[in-house]
Design a protein that fits this description.
Layout lengths: L1 H10 L3 E4 L3 E4 L4 H22 L5 H15 L4 H16 L5 H27 L7 H9 L3 H29 L10
Antiparallel strand pairs: 1-2
Helix pairs in contact: 2-5, 2-7, 3-4, 3-6, 4-5, 5-7, 6-7
């Protein structure tokens, strides 16, 4: 069980395991957080293009239901199942299982940042683009608008990640010559 737990933590980017050396906690970085948002954006766009022509009203209804359900849970494990179901329902018609798997892996790694920014997100009242906007554009049969929403959606996360690191830097005590031994 311990090895399985460490493998899962490594998959999610929380730790780095070096055989015969040990396990280290991987720190959050602004660069990685932004890069995960950017990679996610590229993957979602790549998955949407082939799926879009095949998205029926039923597919979009199911996708919206799953997206809303995943928004209602706070626990990561409860969130994973509707998230994976959402990806399969929304992008499945495009027949790109590898792309969907890459999105899941990127999302797993990004969850560390999601947990870090959650308190900021809860107090943030700025309206942000979400996948509900992507789904709405798909309902209108407007691929360009849906792709633009995919471009816009991670920008909110990037802003919150940037704020998280700025707040964190402001809270950390600065070493001065007077405080050194």
């Amino acid at each position: 069980p311990l090895r399985d737990a460490l493998r899962q933590l490594e998959k999610e980017g929380f730790v780095s395991v070096t055989p015969y050396r040990g396990t280290k906690v991987v720190p959050l970085t602004l660069t990685e957080g932004v890069e995960l948002c950017e990679v996610s954006q590229v993957l979602h766009s790549a998955a949407l293009r082939p799926a879009f022509p095949h998205q029926t009203t039923q597919v979009l209804d199911r996708s919206e239901e799953l997206f809303r359900r995943r928004r209602e849970v706070a626990d990561t494990e409860q969130w994973r199942q509707p998230s994976e179901e959402f990806l399969k329902a929304f992008y499945g018609p495009g027949n790109r299982p590898l792309t969907i798997e890459l999105i899941k892996n990127t999302t797993d790694q990004a969850l560390r940042y999601w947990h870090a920014i959650l308190p900021i997100r809860k107090s943030d009242d700025v309206p942000r683009t979400s996948f509900l906007d992507v789904i709405a554009a798909c309902r209108r049969r407007d691929l360009d608008a849906a792709l633009q929403c995919i471009v816009d959606a991670p920008q909110g996360s990037i802003e919150l990640i940037t704020k998280f690191f700025a707040d964190r830097a402001a809270e950390e005590p600065q070493l001065t010559a007077a405080s050194l031994p």
